[in-house]
Amino acid sequence: MKIVGVGCGPGMLTERAIEAIKSAKQMWGSKRAIEIASSYIPYSAEVHVIRDYKALKNLPADTVVLSTGDPMLAGLGYLEGEVIPGISSLQYSSAKLGFRLTRTVVVDAHGKDHSGAIERVSEEVNRGNIVFVLPDPDFQTDKLAEILHRRYGMIKIALCERLGYHDERISKGDSEVPPEAETGLFVLVVGDY
């Protein structure tokens, strides 16, 4: 099996990812991952939208599984097989905002305990790290900002939304006036970036 990162948005496929997609006979991915890769998917390939993520481990060895962003950043990299990296929202945000990845800690808050994620962000900010947050659409940025402001005063917060798409938006704010998401496809960068 090949687990192929399609990047966090259009135009971010690597040459190796394109090669794997072009040679696929059977492919699985989310609707968004399939859309990103669509111009390279051969007409002869069987293409399936993933409905049951637990069933992916039972797919044939010659299957290509598309993962948005990079499979190893909260993606499908846990599956057995060859992982082909993609350009992640972390890499892209770093390039857009100019923060160093070596100072960054990732907190996955996607489909997870939001209160626990907020505590982890707070702990990492207190340690002086830049925190990259992978939220889901229900994550409350304002609640995070309120807790950070109460504990530490003014903390920078950037919201990076629909990265790589034509309507990409990067909003900068802080813990007093946090940026607000307009869609459910966003990440946060918190701290001294």
Describe this structure in a few short sentences:
The chain is of the alpha/beta class and 193 residues long.
**How many runs of DSSP E, i.e. beta strands?**
10
Q: What's the structural domain tally?
A: 2
Portion in helices: 25-40%
Task: Note the run of SSEs as H and E.
Answer: EHEHEEEHEHEHEEE
Main sheet properties: 5 strands, parallel
The poorly predicted ranges are none
| CATH superfamily (homologous) name of the largest domain | Tetrapyrrole methylase, C-terminal domain
Q: Briefly, what CATH class of the largest domain?
A: Alpha Beta
Provide structural commentary.
There is one protein chain. The chain is α/β, with parallel strands linked by helices. It has two domains: 2-87, Tetrapyrrole methylase, N-terminal domain (Cobalt-precorrin-4 Transmethylase, domain 1, 3-Layer(aba) Sandwich); 90-190, Tetrapyrrole methylase, C-terminal domain (Methyltransferase, Cobalt-precorrin-4 Transmethylase, Domain 2, 2-Layer Sandwich), CATH 3.30.950. The chain has helices at residues 15-22, 31-37, 89-97, 114-126, 141-152, and strands at residues 2-5, 26-29, 46-49, 63-67, 82-84, 104-109, 130-135, 156-161, 169-174, 186-190. Strands 3-2-4-1-5 form a five-stranded parallel β-sheet, covered by helices on one side. Strands 6-7-10-8-9 form a five-stranded mixed β-sheet, with helices on both faces. Helix 4 (114-126) runs parallel beside helix 5. The longest helix is centred in the middle third of the chain and has 13 residues, at 114-126. It is elongated and about 55 Å long. The chain starts with a strand and ends with a strand.
